[in-house]
């Protein structure tokens, strides 16, 4: 699992003019072909040796011969509060925290992975789109990482469902395939409720049940769903 600061070549690039947090799509990004798993969930097996990914559920935003990139969706970012983050980013003044719409007040801030933890990545429902900045991953879920989406959420004009992740998980070419073959990960289809659900701590068990796996048998389970 990559823990460096270089973005893997997954067809995702930094968007121009987005500051410290920003990625945007290039043509052909996240195409589902050749058996790649973009748009699916990775579920960590108990044999996962890297503690940073133990019991992790990851939504894969991009997967190709050039590598993979995903967002952990079941690890809260500790005491970081979304409204306070908006103040720190100077999107709203401190006095406006009490005026935020419900979608902003309930926004989850997660640890998206160990790579570039100072950058924000918003996974969100497909009812919101910013040209040249939003990456559609499947029919229901998109990725945007510009400040514009945070401004929209703060103003009540953002997507219906969204989570903000700090950092991401990245794999070099062939690395994810090797980890799956070594029984490091299971995978299963994603659904919006599993990605955006408020019960963050329950997502690991829910993902396993979606696969049809009994946690007590995982140690001997194969690495493919």
Question: Quick recap of the structure?
Answer:
The protein has 225 residues and is of the alpha+beta class. Helices cover 18% and strands 27% of the residues.
The count of DSSP E runs of length 2 or more, i.e. the number of strands, is 11
Q: Quick one: CATH superfamily?
A: VC0467-like
Order of helices and strands: EEEEEHHEEEEHEHEHH
Indicate the radius of gyration in whole angstroms: 17 Å
Based on Cα principal axes, name the global outline. Answer: globular
State the oligomer: single chain
Give me the secondary-structure category.
alpha+beta
Mean pLDDT: 81
Number of domain modules: 1
The amount of helix comes to 10-25%
Tell me about the largest β-sheet: 9 strands, mixed
Counting H and I runs of at least 4 residues, what is the number of helices? Answer: 6
- Known CATH architecture: 3-Layer(aba) Sandwich
CA-to-CA gap between the ends?
20 Å
Low-confidence stretches: 1-33, 220-225
Could you say what the CATH topology is called? Answer: VC0467-like
- Give the DSSP E fraction (strand runs of 2 or more residues): 25-35%
Just give the CATH class. Answer: Alpha Beta
